[in-house]
Automatic annotation (TrEMBL):
SUPFAM superfamilies (UniProt xref): Ribosomal protein L1
InterPro entries hit by this protein: Ribosomal_uL1-like, Ribosomal_uL1/biogenesis, Ribosomal_uL1_3-a/b-sand
One protein family per Pfam: Ribosomal_L1
Protein's recorded name: 50S ribosomal protein L1
Organism the protein comes from: marine sediment metagenome
Length: 126
């Protein structure tokens, strides 16, 4: 199958998917392409597929010693506010990624680790 044929088939499939009734959950589509007789040294693949909706903008929060205007900040003084698990869960849901100042990592691990760790949002000290 040539790349143009592949692109046409993919576009037809997306049109068919859009015709189906809307579901009450976020739908995903997995695409698996098996490339046979394809030499990566000779051929290159360049395929761009646009999605019909805007992808959610990522929100980042920082655990810092002082406020920063470029990123929403949780300072050391505000750690007490998040001792309540409900407030902490709200914080974790609100942001997609967390960054941290290295000197605050031990305190962050003890205060926020129980919720950030399982959510996969614990900042890395590296």
């Amino acid at each position: 199958m040539k790349m143009t044929e592949l692109k046409e088939q993919l576009q037809k499939s997306l049109i068919e998917l859009r015709k189906e009734k809307e579901r009450k959950f976020n739908q995903t589509v997995d695409l698996i392409i098996n490339l046979q007789k394809f030499d990566v040294k000779k051929n290159t693949i360049n395929l761009l597929v646009s999605v019909p909706y805007k992808i959610k903008e990522k929100k980042i929060a920082g655990f810092l010693e002082s406020k920063n205007k470029n990123v929403e900040t949780v300072t050391k003084e505000e750690f007490k506010k998040y001792s309540d698990k409900k407030e902490l869960r709200k914080l974790v849901k609100k942001f997609d990624f967390f960054i941290a100042q290295a000197s605050l990592m031990p305190k962050i691990a003890t205060s926020f680790g129980k919720v950030l760790g399982p959510a996969g949002k614990m900042p890395s000290p590296r």
